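As noted in the main text, all predictions were made from sequence alone. Below is one such record, for TTF-type domain-containing protein.
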Amino acid sequence: MASQLSGWDKAKKKRKEAAEQEKLLAKIPKLSSYFGMRAASSQLPASDAIANSSAPEDQAKQDEPDEEREDKERESSAERAEVKGDAITGEALAQTLEDITNDLGQWGKINADTREYWAKKGSKHCQHTESMFEESARQYLGESFQRRCTKTFFVRTHPLNGEKSYRQWLCYSPSTGKVFCFACKLFGGNAVQATKFVSGGFDNWRTGESRIKMHESSDGHRKAMLSFASRQREAGRVDYLAAKQVEEERCYWRQIVKRLIDVLIFLAKRGLAIRGADEIIGSPHNGNYLGIIELLAEYDTLLASHIRKYANCGKGHISYLSSTICEELVQLMGQKVQDTILKEAKKAKYFSVSIDSTPDVSHLDQLTIVIRYVLPLGPVERFLTFLPMMRHTATHMASILLNFLKENGLDVTNCRGQSYDNASNMSGRYNGVQAIVKRECKYAAFIPCCNHSLNLVGDQAVNSCAGCTRFFHFVNGLYVFLSESTYRWQKLKNRCTLTLKGLSGTRWCERADAVKALVEGWKSIQEVLDELAADKEQKADTRNQADGFSRRMDELETAVMATAWNDILCRLNSTSISLQDPTVSLNTATSLLASLVDTIQFARDRFDVYEQMAIEKVPHGEYKAEERRGRKRKRMPDEGAANEENLTPRETFKTHIYLVMIDRLLAELEKRMKAYEDCNENSCVKLASFILITCVCLLRAFLSCRLRLLHGSYCHKRTSFEL
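Prediction:
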């Protein structure tokens, strides 16, 4: 009984039969060999001509008699001698064969002609995928069997959708039993020249699939494929599927990134948060960024298919939907905007700076840098960056500003203005930031921020006496008490047209709104407080608070303060709004501050008017201090016998609270207005000097012209007289 062949023996037998069949087919002459071999050979490259003619000639030599064979060899030698042009020596022919052979393992030095030839011919002739790969057999340490190259290496399977594509760049070398990268071998740069797929060949079949995937995903291979595709298009080829695949992939990701950038621009324009609590597509907590992308995917088929394929795949999968890519896009977009602003500022040449510090939610103090420059359409103000700041000293802040300007190519000698707040470390005459910058550029005029000046003026006036501080604490406490309960707030809204407002530490316009609402709704607010104090259904603590606020509103001092501050804050607010106009000039700002000083000076003499208006709100018209017994001070032995002057409660309130408040307002305003007057005066002096110099130059030019005319007329008359 005959033994059955094993699987390996069957495969070996099959390969042997296929090899014998190939040898038999190689001996059969081609049909084209009988028609114009000489003419065709002159038009083809040397390797094609030799490859096409070698097989039929060998077969003919074996079939013909020896004499006829010798005659034909002599005729062939004569025909080769008659070939026009330079004779091809054996060495040159060998070199040509070496350069254009379809075995990448035998390629020598690659020149421009070789690249041009294979760009036209393509990689199909160099892959040898029909080979049996017997030369690639390798046995590794610790293994009892041999591994070899297989046809599966030439097919790429997509990891997500399972789509198969042919690796046209992978070529097998029958002489070495190794594989090479066709594109990197011809067009690879220095980054891929040292890899096995270019120099020496790759034959580690144990890790073949992973290494091949790693190579085709590398940047060097992608660049080589793009160069190969470009050269193919230049050569007029149509079959460049491998490069087309890379180009389609690049266009696909460009379309995806374009949509992501549009979403980020939409969120940035509106100041909305980007990220959420998670990064899961379909989650209601994934934030505005991923949420808008999901919404667009409902109407965008490309984005919808991208989300189906790549979303929620985890780390290691490219989707461009992760927070890392999102932050990188934001950083690149911010850098692009900053570069554009810096380019405009450099083109405009002259600029002014404004800086301020503010802590963020992570308690990191940051320095904000803003520049202002003039474009052909008018002046513009641009935010540049946030910079971390460790200390609030003038030297530290000035060094951060100067280093930033230097690193970004802005010459500080072109700075023509500075605008900071009125803090001592910023506006100090000798050691402030403005003084340090002026040492670098003497033309950088310092102009304090007008609105910040008004905020500081109001803050200093409130802190000047305890009466003012207690009044604003009462206003804020009343708002908190009524707004913390929906029932109380609804009762207040049913009676008042203007609802109460809370206080802000920096925006004094909100204080103006809060005091105005209190003054206009005085009676209604007091009635609501009395109802809450008398309501037995309310808690005892609520009734006590309502009664306390009602008693405070029944004091004449509170009514006078509310009436006076309402008038002053309304004027401060209107001035602040006018100063915020981007087109306001320095001269106009100085005039507005001067007008505000006159208004407050006028309010100093209006105490009686404010008192009469307060009595209309508090009918009893008595100051709280009148109910108290006067305290008698102990007289010291060295004091005289003169009687001690005792002020009435009205005079005490007016002298110790009202006048102190008004005088502090005036003093702070006049002190801060001095800086604007100096800047305005310097500007006027410079303008007047410029006009005067211009007039003098024009006058000199006019006189010089007149003298030349008179001299010419005199010379003409003298010549006529002599004739």
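DSSP finds 27 helices and nine strands in the chain. The CA atoms of residues 31 and 56 lie 10 Å apart. These features were considered when defining construct boundaries for the mutagenesis experiments described in Section 2.9.
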